[in-house]
Amino acid sequence: MEIENVVENVAFKLLKLAVIHLPEDVKQALEKAYTEETSETGKTQLKAILDNIECAEKYQTPICQDTGTIIFYVKAGAEAKHLEKIEGALIKATRRATVEVPLRPNAVNPFTQKNSGDNTGRLIPWINWEIEPTDEIELTVLPKGGGAENTCVMGMLVPGEGIRGVKKFVVDAVMNAGAKPCPPNILGVGIGGGSDIAMKIAKKALLRPLNNENPNPEIAKLEKEILEAVNMTGIGPMGLGGKTTVLSISIDYAYRHPASYPAAVAFNCWAARRATARISADGTVEYLTHRVDEVI
Amino acid sequence: MTDYRFRTPISEEEIRKLRVNDVLYISGTMFTARDQAHRRALEYFKQGKSLPLNLEGLAAFHCGPIVKKTKDMWTIIAAGPTTSTRMEIFEDEFIKNFKVRVIIGKGGMGRRTTEAMASYGAVYGAFTGGAAILAAKAVRNVKSVEWLDLGMPEAMWILEVEEFGPLTIAIDSHGNNLFMNVQRKAEENKKRIYQKLGLSQ
């Protein structure tokens, strides 16, 4: 089969998998939160979330009606053939998934307010490219819901305050977001680089599985410290009160300009959807985030 | 915490019984309305134009559903709530003009809506954000769709529902707002959190 057909099929399956089946690590974190939540209203919300996840799998329908803005991450092997055809294949897959899964049409022209109806439009789906020294193609889809996107923040902090400034920035972001991003949330935090870089790495940090500890022990400690702090707010599931406001924090960083200290917080809702697959040079496909029996 | 089951049209008297933290299930007619539908409905009201249906006693659902059309039949696939705060700029006028009794959404609403709910007799029912299939399961059928030119999410979908819920009453018609209470408590906790992180205010 031609590479563009393989990519299109895999991307279609990834979109379908992502919006119907939450990754195991997210489900486990939500189940743990349900067991540990002490607020009655908070527990009701988590119960509804868990029931809904089960229904999505049973009826093969999207977990949430907001199937997000479609974002792809592509690791393109430098030795892989016909990389120029990937973009077209991803657009085709998005259009097909919109009709067949179905996905909600979520691409709107910001000037005319017209919805394109097929989840595509200028620069959408957004594709992040990375080149790797292989002959494989790794595709990840991150359907990003609007509610949690609306509470993402970027700030140019004071370099003199260092990491203390970041801690305050994240706590304030969670407080200001309140109920809006569908808590319990997953946070990606990007530190350094520049204004765009901080948000880019914050969003990419959302792809890290919740049960994978940060390989840098100092940062792992910082993630834990901020996680405990934001869960003291009492905002709770859906902002109705409780001790589970954030499930996990994932921090990444880049070196910064001496005069700048950019920091960004990317919010993901509890329906933290993502799916990844690797396509080998011979066309074989391996799904990395989901079990084989979930792939239809 | 008391459980209530209401059928539309809901009267002001019934609505006044509800208090924050109560749980409500609705049967009957409700309609979806997001930013654009709110804006258009209020424009119609200003111009003296009538709406596609009488909204009095009904429930407005902040929701942009996924709907599938097979032949002439619309089916709701997924229909969870959207963030209600975006409708804060419209909702007081909306409640006042159309006598809608229940607003369903997620994330809560502000002072203006809370005051309008107290003045005119309406409540805000929080539905679990993202629980789109639980919501869709309570929809018996799509009665009609109006204003589809606004796009699938923004159109006004008129739905026949059975036992739609659980809705946690988060704003009642007596001036109580559960989200604001939680937010106030969070503000009170802030000092403790900053201290734990070794930060000054």
Rg of chain A over CA atoms, rounded to whole Å, is: 19 Å
In CATH, the topology of the largest domain in chain A is named 60s Ribosomal Protein L30, Chain: A
Q: If you average the pLDDT of chain A, what whole number results?
A: 96
Radius of gyration of chain B: 18 Å
| Largest interface (CB < 8 Å) | A-B, 58 and 52 residues
Explain what the structure shows.
The complex is a heterodimer of chains A (296) and B (201). Chain A folds into two domains: 3-22 and 63-145 and 273-294, 60s Ribosomal Protein L30, Chain: A (2-Layer Sandwich); 147-268, no CATH class. Helices cover 38% and strands 20% of the residues of chain A. Chain A has helices at 3-20, 24-36, 40-59, 86-100, 146-149, 162-177, 195-205, 217-230, and strands at 69-77, 126-132, 137-144, 153-157, 185-191, 246-253, 261-268, 275-279, 285-287. In chain A, the strands form two sheets. Chain A has a five-stranded mixed β-sheet. The longest helix of chain A is centred in the first third of the chain and has 20 residues, at 40-59. Chain A is globular, with a radius of gyration of 19 Å. In chain B, the strands form two sheets. In chain B, strands 2-3-6-7-9 form a five-stranded mixed barrel. Chain B has a two-stranded antiparallel ribbon with strand order 4-5. The mean pLDDT of chain B is 95. In chain B, helix 2 (35-46) packs across helix 3 (88-98) and helix 3 runs parallel beside helix 4. Chain B has 201 residues and is α/β, with parallel strands linked by helices. Chain B is built from six helices and nine strands. Chain B has a single domain, classed as fumarase (Alpha-Beta Barrel).
Short description:
The complex is a heterodimer of chains A (296) and B (201). With 296 residues, chain A is α+β, with helices and mostly antiparallel strands. Chain A has helices spanning 3-20, 24-36, 40-59, 86-100, 146-149, 162-177, 195-205, 217-230, and strands spanning 69-77, 126-132, 137-144, 153-157, 185-191, 246-253, 261-268, 275-279, 285-287.
